[in-house]
TrEMBL record:
<feature type="transmembrane region" description="Helical">
    <location>
        <begin position="91"/>
        <end position="111"/>
    </location>
</feature>
<feature type="transmembrane region" description="Helical">
    <location>
        <begin position="189"/>
        <end position="208"/>
    </location>
</feature>
<dbReference type="InterPro" id="IPR038770">
    <property type="entry name" value="Na+/solute_symporter_sf"/>
</dbReference>
<protein>
    <recommendedName>
        <fullName>Bile acid:sodium symporter</fullName>
    </recommendedName>
</protein>
<feature type="transmembrane region" description="Helical">
    <location>
        <begin position="220"/>
        <end position="241"/>
    </location>
</feature>
<feature type="transmembrane region" description="Helical">
    <location>
        <begin position="155"/>
        <end position="177"/>
    </location>
</feature>
<keyword id="KW-0812">Transmembrane</keyword>
<feature type="transmembrane region" description="Helical">
    <location>
        <begin position="63"/>
        <end position="85"/>
    </location>
</feature>
<feature type="transmembrane region" description="Helical">
    <location>
        <begin position="262"/>
        <end position="283"/>
    </location>
</feature>
<feature type="transmembrane region" description="Helical">
    <location>
        <begin position="12"/>
        <end position="42"/>
    </location>
</feature>
<keyword id="KW-1133">Transmembrane helix</keyword>
<keyword id="KW-0472">Membrane</keyword>
<feature type="transmembrane region" description="Helical">
    <location>
        <begin position="123"/>
        <end position="143"/>
    </location>
</feature>
Length: 303
């Protein structure tokens, strides 16, 4: 059964998003546990990567140029679009915060399932995550209209726990534990890491369902915006990287389309405004449909 779920993990992600929408009470009840799931997934994903090769990839200028595109360029693009479309202040802050968000730590597993270079996706994911502290502060500075100030002490504690903590832990384990027993451990648990990914669409979509129950028209509006954001990130990244080959373009596109909104919320919390969590919930279905569509697109363009 586990092998079947792992083999068909991409459509199962969509299934869990639908289940979270159908059972909103369970989704909302599970939401507080998501940061723990996120920490576990980030740590296990980093442990499974070849550290030296990952550092080599991260030292490449092309990775950091991608990270700037992923955050600051797209923040500018969606900020201008939101202003042109007359988004209210809360929604404008939410869409810019989504653009500031790094890629999902599940992205390497998704990219591996698609048959592309998971290490490249991991390097892109880490680079965009490391830019998050700067990009989210920029988003709050330019787009938050309230007089609430950032609690710097709490902010840096959250950064250490959710970003630097798993990276430092992974580095220490690779330095202290010999490669053979570590690899045996990782091989045993690797099938289970993909199961952790299912928790995010299930636990995040509940806030969107609550909005849907209160105001279906606004919920549909948020869903259209969320779908538009995913498509915008995906298409622009694909176009900009197309000349580097199909695999690289699709890797950049799927990495850009997948946004770790839970990490952004864990770091910045209520400062992101009341529109962020419903928008984050609305993002779940298009986000987890992207890998399925990418697999289909890869087959079409490869012919």
């Amino acid at each position: 059964m586990l092998l079947f779920v792992v083999r068909h993990s991409l459509p199962f992600m969509v299934v869990f998003a639908v289940l979270g929408f159908v059972f909103p009470a369970a989704s909302v009840a599970f939401f507080p546990f998501l940061p723990l799931v996120l920490l576990t997934l980030m740590t296990l994903t980093l442990l499974g990567m070849k550290q030296r090769e990952l550092v080599r990839r991260l030292s490449s200028m092309t990775i950091w140029l991608y990270a700037v595109l992923h955050s600051f360029v797209f923040m500018t693009v969606v900020g201008l679009l939101g202003w042109w479309l007359s988004f209210d202040e809360d929604l404008l802050l939410a869409v810019v915060a989504v653009a500031a968000t790094g890629s999902l730590f599940a992205t390497p597993a998704i990219v591996r399932a698609l048959g592309f270079d998971s290490l490249q996706a991991m390097a892109m994911t880490i680079a965009t995550t490391l830019l998050l502290p700067v990009s989210i502060i920029a988003a709050l500075y330019f787009f938050q209209q309230q007089s609430v100030e950032l609690d710097w002490g709490s902010y840096f504690v959250r950064l250490m726990i959710f970003i630097f903590g798993p990276m430092l832990f992974s580095f220490a384990v690779h330095r202290l534990v010999s490669e053979e027993p570590l690899n045996r451990f990782l091989v045993k648990i690797s099938p289970y890491t993909i199961l952790l990914v299912f928790a995010f669409p299930f636990g995040l979509i509940g806030r969107f369902r609550m909005l849907f129950d209160q105001d279906p028209v606004t919920a549909l509006y948020y869903f259209l915006i969320a779908t538009g954001l995913c498509c915008l990130f995906f298409v622009l990244s694909f176009i900009l990287y197309r000349n580097k080959g199909l695999d690289v373009a699709l890797t950049a596109a799927i990495t850009s389309g997948n946004r770790n909104v839970l990490l952004t919320y864990s770091v910045a919390g209520a400062l992101l405004g009341p529109a962020f969590l419903p928008l984050a919930g609305a993002l779940q279905l298009p986000t987890y449909l992207l890998p399925v569509l990418t697999r289909w697109l890869s087959r079409i363009l490869s012919k």
